[in-house]
């Protein structure tokens, strides 16, 4: 499945020696055509990794013939040398695969502030190219893992004969705008770059952009959508947009489900908002409130922490009309003590917080994780 | 010392039975005059506890004759009943101490969303009044602790004959705007309410408002400054402002030093900013970045996390000109790899992060803590 579920794509994942562990760390995804249409969405972080700066330019041309992805190093905050390394990566891939370096996207993930071992990465591209296969999607998904415990793939198929497939990595530094998250989606639908861009932006706005595991926005987030046109079918625009959204949503949920140290997935539903922006702002403030995240970890329906987080936002609400439910029990009504908190059952991994602003009819859902001692352990030792 | 360091004040701290532990939980601070001037600064959280709503009104009159403070319950998100409880507290104190309930400030701290046990609190006021003493400041400071491991007091004395003293509590839900922090400052300087207000606002802006332990703004933050005029000396305004700032700064540092679960105090200095607002915004984004806080806990000079946090702000900067020092070692220069990170010694409790935006001459210092497994443990079990 993964990026090779759609016709017209080959992929490979290999161990190039970039990671000290010796594990898989280099992936190639190649669009075999006939089309080379592509769109991309990148991190909103103003400190952008070299591969993001590079790939943003590539996407502007509307064509991507191949994507080179590496784990084991983010190539972020590496200055001119880092950018030259990304450029050399694209040049090498173009030399090996044919075509222009200007149509090769590059994505990197791992530690910020270290140079990539180009003496290993460049030979790795040759090795990966030799292993390209129409069944290589799984191996590519495995090669981009960092602290991910599982690889993430998803697929949606249309009765009209086309397919959207994808892979993702991301477990930490996982917050919107976008969430160190690399995603490559592929489709054999016959869609041009503009159509891909519309579908991708609409899909990421309500999926990856509403995932907030730890409030920390990455320097490297990249979501690419490549179309080969190999199905020979021009998709219905609405159906195609929904297929892309479905695959993005599936991958986004997998990211939350595998977040560093997490023991709970928190579905934050903000309802009764005056505007969608208000709902998103409130949802994000809950997603980033460490005290609330600790309470959820402790299976403690501490709704006071929900209200104190709502109170820090600029959303429209009256403190005396706020209602909060945890797993369906309205523990806070009209800004004060509601139903018996002992009725809340929080034993399962998914916890649902519903915050009713009682101001209107708009809503938004944000996915977050609890804050755990395991998260602290994993992230206090990561680079050492 | 504490709130009775200045002449004209008595205080007491007793166990009223509000806390299940049976520990001290009720404090009284009484201004014996001749002046009853006062100023106050309160939480910027839009969800405000009943005692905050009450005391904001009291402060508007410019006079406070006494402050009743309780731990063991925040009386926040308790609706009309909670406000009636605060009102009854002020009425009881007025009946016992004399004077008007409209000049009695009330402050509460503890769990949000539970009603106070008024059958214990009201008799406690009588008991505390019977123990009022010019040496009672220490006991008052002890009675307002919640998860604080130590009580916090500070004092500054002027050669002109007046004194500023104070007490504070706060260990979690500790973030600006203001930081569950209750602070009572007293002075025997002969200053009116307007002068107190100017000094207090100037002092809190660069002290309590620049403490950000866990990014979570409380519903109950209250800082009061009471003047008795008992020294008979009208203070020089600049000297008085500096004394108030010194006491606030001392107490703010004590709050950070005792923050829940913390093993490191992080001094975040943002320099080279175009504006002070930019410096504060960048400082806060570092203070609230969980990945950076975990890295500091792990004694890992992970400057990439500093840059990724700066990148989420709207401050003026060029990513290729950013410089970062950790404990004086410039590990990041011009947005890229700088001096050897192995030179950074992070064994001690205080860690200094200097972020140079290379855009101007403005600066700001924010104090924060690391994120630890102990913080998670303490806050996943607090209400259960």
From TrEMBL, chains A, B:
Residue(s) at site: Involved in the stabilization of negative charge on the oxyanion by the formation of the oxyanion hole: 109-110
Binding site for substrate: 146, 169, 180, 260, 379, 384
Pathway per the UniProt entry: Amino-acid biosynthesis; L-arginine biosynthesis; N(2)-acetyl-L-ornithine from L-glutamate: step 1/4; Amino-acid biosynthesis; L-arginine biosynthesis; L-ornithine and N-acetyl-L-glutamate from L-glutamate and N(2)-acetyl-L-ornithine (cyclic): step 1/1
Annotated keywords: Acyltransferase, Amino-acid biosynthesis, Arginine biosynthesis, Autocatalytic cleavage, Cytoplasm, Multifunctional enzyme, Transferase
Subcellular localization(s) per the UniProt record: Cytoplasm
Entry annotation: catalytic residues: 180 (nucleophile)
Site for Cleavage, residues: 179-180
CDD domains: OAT
Chief localization: cytoplasm
Transmembrane domains' residue ranges: none
Catalytic activity of the protein: N(2)-acetyl-L-ornithine + L-glutamate = N-acetyl-L-glutamate + L-ornithine; L-glutamate + acetyl-CoA = N-acetyl-L-glutamate + CoA + H(+)
UniProt-listed Enzyme Commission number(s): 2.3.1.35, 2.3.1.1
Function as written in the Swiss-Prot or TrEMBL entry: Catalyzes two activities which are involved in the cyclic version of arginine biosynthesis: the synthesis of N-acetylglutamate from glutamate and acetyl-CoA as the acetyl donor, and of ornithine by transacetylation between N(2)-acetylornithine and glutamate.
Subunit comment: Heterotetramer of two alpha and two beta chains.
Family statement drawn from the similarity comment of this UniProt entry: Belongs to the ArgJ family.
Name of the protein in its database record: Arginine biosynthesis bifunctional protein ArgJ
Gene: argJ_1
